[in-house]
Amino acid sequence: MARPTKALINISALQHNYRLAQTLSGAGQAMPIIKANAYGHGAVLVARALSKLAPAFGVACIEEALELRQAGIKQPILLLEGCFTADEIAVAVEHNFWLMIDNQLQLDSILTCNIATPVTVWLKVDTGMHRLGFDADEVESVYRQACSSNNVAEDIIVATHFACADDLSSEATVEQIAVFNSATANITAAKSLANSPGLLGWPEARAEWNRSGFMLYGNSPFSQPQVNGDQLKPVMSLQSAIISLRTVDSGESVGYAASWTAQRQSRVATIAIGYGDGYPRKAPSGTPVYINGQRVPLIGRVSMDMITVDVTDLAEVAIGDTVELWGEHISANEVAGFADTIGYEVMTRMPLRVPRIGVE
């Protein structure tokens, strides 16, 4: 018998979301981004589920890419932060990893290394986020340097990243697209602008390569309804079970620091999940969980391995009943909102002790 906490990964929903990304890409291609353990969903599980659909995958670093190779994933894998040290280049060539280049040091390391096979590179352009990338006015020169090297494969891709694409009312994305188009006007290489919000909400950002990350996992990056984001299906159902039931009188407190006090005689259920499982510690009393077809409120502080909820208004409740923390009935975005964070964080912070189980 095992602890009941688990994350069910809906393979059909994942594939539905990827097919939506493909459709929105038009004549371009959608690259699943599966960094940070596929946003907490299990990188190997997700890559295998998409291996017959996706032309390539994107991860943050070479360690994440090697995990996929060791699991038998054959597609090219883009290292979104490139190489951190020059000795990684030979490994990248050996395993058909593509390299993002965002500064002259990374480019020089490739130009001067001793490799038998040229490597595919993506040139990152800083169009306004000011985090990574070459300045827009130096991109043509950098592109020419890359093209002139026998160490660089012919199929160079030029890319950028959006700072505010999840805000459909912001002019920042319009400005970034304009900067990118101007900077690359004389470059014939394939382009990549769109992340998930760019792909879903900014048609003019769709290009030859589109990087679908957060959207793959069924959560919209937008804070308001959006025609494409609303078609996404949740992939993860974070579940546990009730492990204890008790009645507390009015005036009695529950949990650490006695932060919640009953205003009536209350039925309290203890659930086997806590911040040690990735459930946000900052989730306050009132955050919803789903039990037996009904939302009920979290009460008291989230502890490492347990939470408590008020089930007084449930007609039927028993030890062993399944609890959904987020998934089909409550979105990760909604829970994140109660905890003053974002859906990206609550999913990616889930530790390995929570088993990911693929289901159809």
From TrEMBL:
Family note: Belongs to the alanine racemase family.
PTM sites of type N6-(pyridoxal phosphate)lysine: K35
Residue sites binding substrate per the record: R131, M304
Reactions catalysed according to its record: L-alanine = D-alanine
Cofactor: pyridoxal 5'-phosphate
An MF annotation (GO) of this entry: alanine racemase activity
EC numbers for this chain: 5.1.1.1
Record keywords: Isomerase, Pyridoxal phosphate
Leading EC class: isomerase
Protein name stated in the entry: Alanine racemase
Active site: residue positions: K35, Y256
Species in which this protein is naturally found: Sinobacterium norvegicum
Protein purpose: Catalyzes the interconversion of L-alanine and D-alanine. May also act on other amino acids.
NCBIfam families noted in UniProt: alr
Gene name linked to the record: alr
All copies of domain Alanine racemase C-terminal, residue ranges: 235-359
Pathway(s) it belongs to: Amino-acid biosynthesis; D-alanine biosynthesis; D-alanine from L-alanine: step 1/1
Keyword ATP-binding carried by entry: no
